[in-house]
Design a protein that fits this description.
single chain, about 200 residues, alpha+beta, 5 helices, 8 strands
Length: about 200
């Protein structure tokens, strides 16, 4: 799972729309390099988040300031915004929830460097965990680079705990992933098990 976590008026969270794809694709390339999702993959993911069979959700956070307001963002960060007179895209995130049929999976989460430390990632994570809970998912899973301690601290603050590793899950550069889980509700025990007796005997 890609992750890149981290001044002005309060940002706003909304559903990702088709008009965000160009900005998101540019942000992907800048933040994730060789592991960035292609624009076509992003478009397919967004399509899967709409309609009666939707099994995932994507959100974005944007600044209420237009690109012409202030100088808090450098040229590289302006490049991933939505235009010279529109709000700036500060971050985005996606969740696979399978309609509550199984565990939810945090697919991606990213914020632009200039917006880190403002709670953008926390805002998106809280929203998507709420979605998983509303869908009655038993838990939320994610993968994070072993070296990304900042992201791991964010997830820990939200109740995630490490449950294992995936060897060489990331390829550019090669690195293990730490698998983390947030439990939302207890999973049912074996048929015949009584309360307080996990063995079922």
């Amino acid at each position: 799972m890609p992750e890149a976590t981290g001044a002005g008026r309060a940002p706003g969270l909304r559903e990702m729309a088709a008009g965000d794809l160009e900005a998101v694709a540019r942000l992907e390339g800048e933040l994730f390099g060789a592991e960035a999702w292609s624009r076509d993959l992003l478009a397919a993911e967004l399509e899967a988040s709409h309609g009666p069979m939707a099994d995932r959700r994507y959100v974005v956070v944007e600044s209420e300031e237009s690109d012409g307001d202030g100088d808090a963002y450098d040229a590289a960060d302006r490049a991933v915004g939505t235009g010279s007179h529109g709000p700036r895209l500060l971050g985005y995130a996606g969740l696979y929830h399978a309609g509550g049929l199984t565990s939810a999976d945090l697919l991606t989460i990213a914020t632009i460097p200039a917006a880190r430390g403002r709670g953008i990632a926390s805002l998106m994570l809280t929203e998507l965990v709420s979605t998983a809970r509303e869908m009655s998912c038993p838990d939320v899973l994610l993968e994070v680079r072993q070296s990304n301690e900042a992201a791991q601290r964010l997830y820990t603050r939200h109740g995630f705990v490490p449950i294992g590793r995936r060897r060489r899950y990331y390829q550019a550069p090669p690195e293990d992933a730490v698998v983390m889980r947030l439990t939302l509700r207890p999973r049912p025990g074996p048929v015949g098990a009584e309360a307080g007796d996990p063995s079922g005997v």
